[in-house]
Design goal:
Largest interface: A-B, 59 and 54 residues
Shape of chain A: globular
Largest sheet of chain B: 10 strands, mixed
Strand content of chain B: 15-25%
Number of helices of chain A: 8
Largest sheet of chain A: 8 strands, mixed
Number of strands of chain A: 14
Helix content of chain B: 25-40%
Radius of gyration of chain B: 19 Å
Oligomer: heterodimer
Order of helices and strands of chain B: EHEHEHEHEHEHEEEEHEEEHH
Structural class of chain A: alpha/beta
Distance between the termini of chain A: 25 Å
Chain lengths: 257, 286
């Protein structure tokens, strides 16, 4: 077997953070890959919820969109989108939200709206979708994002969804009682918010990654925890399961057909 | 009891969709009324305000063909693929005409449709906390709970002039069954102030007694026009009948990237085509 790429390792590390007790609101893309890998490996009883209304879904292939038929066909039940956001998300039934984004800052505020000014965009991004309320209604938030100075920035151009605001007790000041981002997994490292300042701090390095590489890929002077752990590489089972999932997905979406 | 008319797609759009209307064509990834959107393009409607939680290819096509002047949305893109190139060209470069936007979150729009269906003036929910959209969209405001003092988000109810959705089945009385990912399809039909148009895969004798007691059924008297268009949601999908054409969605990216290739595609596949072209997708499980 060829060794894991950093992108594959990132998904594996994110998947390891989930457990069978989690009720997880899943974003599309890498969050969806991580959540389904978790379901197929260490967290077989995890409940996955997608904003299309599909509850406890068990897709055999990764959905391209948030509402692929595969999600409904394999769900325990499918509710309306109004009900999803009112009873289930706002109702406080979801323990973890899994998000990605185009930009993140040191307090894990996310931008998926716009690069440049809102009214005169340099790049117009898709927008928030479910994220603004996922970020405040889920018990806690996990984030998965490829790390570069363009994505890990000193200041996000637009706060699409709240992380820890400007740090400290900012969430509480806004009346938000949920924990917010507690874990950020990148292709280089794992970051967690400092308990006091809430600034993201590197707590572990992915196999082969160095402090210098992390510093170079971060748009602010990034801090490291007193003890930085080394994450074990993906096991053969994790890697094979992930690659099979990607291969089934590519075949189902007509890639290379 | 008022029943909907069974019309051709051409007659339904001609009778019910006017220049300057506010139109919501919904379907959350599933049941997107593509055939109806194409007919609006063929009939060259102008100055439409288009509402949709997730502007998909159908709105990229309507915007790129100059039918729209405003877009109300909460997530815009080709899911899992990339940008809506025609939407961005209109918004950023005013091609083929200027487009203004009103941007919300999914929770806001889902609540706003439900408020519209419930004949309330606005929706209240716990949202937008710490999110900057509230700073750039004057329609995002707040109210104070009269009982607890909690500050909550408020947005105006969505009340489109016309709602258009696709559904698997109607019966001869015009009752419509929606199943699978139902999205906000029930809410948008009930929130519409003037007209709801439903395109369907199949027309059966009667839904009475044929579906489970809690099935999502819109009574015929909530709808003005039913149109039989098999395959009419393609490249979106219809639960149990045909799958989402994900390869098509990926292929659209290259077609829509440039104005010329977009216009050529639209000319061949929309302007010089008709709803009957969708029939080949009906029942075609991937």
């Amino acid at each position: 077997m060829t060794p894991a790429t950093s992108a594959e390792t990132m998904v594996v590390v994110a998947a390891r953070a989930l457990s069978s007790d989690d009720i997880c609101f899943v974003g599309i893309g890498q969050p969806s890959a991580a959540c389904n890998l978790a379901r197929l490996t260490g967290a077989p009883d995890i409940t996955l919820i997608y904003e299309s209304g599909t509850i406890a879904t068990e897709p055999d292939v990764l959905p391209l969109s948030i509402g692929d038929g595969e999600l409904c066909n394999t769900a325990l039940t499918t509710v309306s989108v109004s009900e999803m956001f009112r009873y289930w998300l706002q109702g406080g039934r979801v323990t973890k939200g899994f998000l990605g984004g185009a930009q993140i800052d040191r307090f894990a505020n996310l931008n998926t709206t716009v690069i440049g000014p809102y009214d005169k965009p340099k790049t117009r991004l898709p927008g928030g979708g479910g994220a603004p309320e996922i970020a405040t209604d889920c018990g806690e938030i996990y984030i998965i994002m490829k790390q570069s100075p363009r994505s890990f920035v000193d200041k996000v151009d637009f706060v699409t969804s709240l992380g820890h605001g400007r740090g400290g007790e900012d969430r509480a000041r806004l009346g938000v009682t949920t924990k917010g981002p507690t874990l950020v997994v990148t292709d280089l490292c794992v970051m967690k918010p400092d308990p006091g300042t809430k600034e993201l701090t590197v707590t572990a390095l992915l196999p082969g990654a160095t402090r210098e590489a992390v510093e170079k890929a971060t748009g602010w002077p990034v801090k490291f925890a007193g003890r930085v752990e080394e994450i074990p590489p993906p096991t053969d089972t994790e890697l094979t399961t992930l690659r099979d999932l990607y291969a089934r997905t590519a075949a189902a979406h007509g890639d290379g057909a | 009891m008022a029943r909907p008319e069974f019309l051709s797609l051409k007659d339904a759009i001609a009778a019910h969709v006017r220049d300057g209307d506010t139109i919501a064509m919904e379907g959350f990834t599933h049941l997107i009324p593509f055939a109806a959107g194409h007919e609006i393009i063929r009939q060259k409607r102008k100055e439409l305000t288009l509402i949709r939680m997730t502007p998909d290819i159908i709105y990229d096509q309507l915007i790129g063909m100059g039918c729209a002047s405003k877009l109300v949305f909460s997530w815009t893109g080709n899911p899992g693929v990339g940008s809506l190139h025609r939407m961005r060209d209109a918004y950023e470069n005013a091609w083929p005409c200027p487009l203004t936007i009103e941007e919300h979150s999914h929770a806001a729009m889902a609540n706003a449709y439900a408020a519209g269906a419930a004949n309330l003036p606005f929706a209240v929910f716990r949202g937008y906390r710490g999110a900057e959209l509230a700073k750039v969209n004057p329609n995002i405001r707040s109210v104070t709970c009269p009982f607890t003092g909690e500050e909550l988000a408020a947005v105006p109810a969505l009340r489109p002039d016309v709602a258009i959705v696709h559904a698997p089945v109607a019966d001869r009385e015009g009752n419509v069954l929606i199943e699978g990912i139902v999205g906000v399809n029930k809410e948008v039909v009930l929130a519409a102030t003037r007209t709801a148009i439903v395109t369907v895969e199949e027309i059966v004798d009667s839904l009475r007694g044929a579906v489970n007691p809690n099935a999502c059924v819109l009574p015929g008297w909530t709808i003005k026009a039913i149109v039989h268009v098999p395959g009419g949601a393609h490249p979106s999908f219809v639960h149990g009948r045909y799958d989402r054409d994900n390869a098509w969605y990926k292929a659209w990216d290259a077609i829509a990237r440039e104005r010329d290739s977009f216009l050529a595609w639209m000319d061949e596949n929309v302007l010089r085509s008709g709803p009957e072209a969708f029939a080949r997708h009906a029942g075609a499980r991937a």
